[in-house]
Amino acid sequence: MIWSLLHIIDVLLWLLMAGSAAYVIFFGIVSLKGEGSESSEDSENSENSENSENSESSENSSFLVIFPAYREDAVIRQSVATFLQQDYPADRYRLVIVSDHMQAETNEWLAQEPLTLLEPTFEKSSKAKALQFAIDYVESDPHRATAFTHVVILDADNVVASDFLHRLNKVCAQGYRAIQCHRTAKNADNDIAALDGISEEINNTLFRRAHNAIGLSSALIGSGMCFDYAWFKANVHQLTSAVEDRELEALLMKQNVFVKYEPHIHVMDEKVSNHDNFQRQRLRWMTGQVQTLFLMLPYLPAAIRQGNINYIDKTVQQMLIPRSVLLVLTVLLSVIVTIVAPTWSIKWWCLLVCLCAALFIAIPRALRTQALFGKLAALLQLVWRMLKNMVHIDRSNKEFIHTAHDK
After folding, report:
1. pTM score
2. Torsion sign over Cα 54, 66, 229, 246
3. DSSP secondary structure string, 135-183?
4. 3-class secondary structure, 225
């Protein structure tokens, strides 16, 4: 009797883990499509960019660029100084900094730069509120000379190349209403930052490049995002949680707006480099995943009836077990089942091998080095912290969880 019960538990656990693993494995295989051509395409795009700079091609898009900055004194100056080096016509974009609880010294420095500095006083801060505040200000500004076609959202620690808007203009000209740029690590100070960067590149492969490869929408990532201005203005006030990117994604999918991933427009992002910041960041993400799942489930039956594949896919994404947790639990359960009942363990080891292969494929070739395997000890510590986070998830909590940056 007890062995039958254990066998049922074993099978149910395997099915639960296999569901999340199958999603990763499928898109890992899909990502092989065109993997080798990415670097050559990037080179070609760079050459085309240079050629276009020498031509008299018009810059058709006008950009409202928003940097929401909550207590970001440590990083905002570099990001702003770098962005202001854009080779895009100055009258075709406007830079807006939403300074939320930043120091007077930082605000004084920003006020001297060619940008719009907003200093709201929120009782409870959030990125969604900052974005709403920026749009409301711009819409009410009587001196606004430019009718914006697109809005760009960057985090306070994001650094972009001088041709960022120039390249983005080309993609916007193709008619895309939502674009996710390639956010990538600008630091690898230690094992935590390096693993965070690798995790982001895996996400880029599985949830962005591979999705676009088969005609599905890319996932958003919170920054390096570009939207049709009219669409964003009409929808930004529907954001109510601390995970505005997931809410935006749900709104886009519900309205059948395709999200284009642009792997050749890089946005350098600072990765977390200590355990406490990592834990806070992952708690925010995991809480957001649960909140978004409950937000999206009510509309799922209608999406199924309408054949809204993108909405169905995004809802399924919210049900997935986080990859690092999935990997470590699969290893742990494979070992336990091998000890308890070796014959039952075959399916577990097969699942583990397929999962590891898919994750390895999803890592860009340049990051597949021997040093990667030396970071496994750090990975175990981080997963342990993620597991502890699970008991703190509160789907009704809408407070902003800030990830601090080291000075």
Report:
1. 0.85
2. positive
3. HHHHHH-TT-----SEEEE--TT-EE-TTHHHHHHHHHTTT-SEEEEEE
4. strand
Q: For residue 58, what are its two tokens?
A: 């018009």
In the chain, the amino acid numbered 141 is D
For the chain, the distance separating the N- and C-terminal CA atoms, rounded to the nearest angstrom, is: 60
**CB of 330 within 8 A of CB of 19?**
no
Alpha-carbon gap, residue 84 to 169, rounded angstroms:
17
pLDDT tens for each residue of 123-159: 888 899 999 999 999 999 887 767 899 999 999 999 9
Which H or E run includes 284?
helix 275-296
Give 3-state DSSP helix, strand, coil % of the chain, rounded to 5.
Answer: 60, 10, 30
Whole-angstrom Cα distance, residue 99 to residue 135? Answer: 14
Q: Are 299 and 311 in contact (CB under 8 A)?
A: yes
Given a contact cutoff of 8 angstroms between Cβ atoms, the answer to whether 326 and 21 are in contact is: yes
- Give the contacts of 86 (CB within 8 A, at least 6 positions apart): 93, 162, 163, 164, 165, 166
Paired residues of 68 in beta bridges:
98
CB 243 within 8 A of CB 288: yes
How far, CA to CA in Å, does 345 sit from each of 7, 330, 342, 357?
11, 11, 5, 18
Phi, psi (5° rounding) for residue 69? -135, 100
For residue range 387-403, list pLDDT tens digits in order: 555 555 455 555 544 55
Q: What is the pLDDT of residues 324-378, one digit of tens each?
A: 788 888 988 998 999 999 999 999 999 999 998 999 899 888 777 655 555 555 5
Q: What are the distances in angstroms from CA 276 to CA 190, 197, 294?
A: 14, 17, 27
Spatial separation of the C-alpha atoms in residues 167 and 49, rounded to whole Å: 7
Give residue 114's pLDDT band: very low, low, confident or very high (50, 70, 90).
Answer: very high
**Two tokens at 136?**
């409301």
**Token digits of residue 334:** 């494979």
Residue from 279, 166, 299, 156 nearest 222 by CA = 156
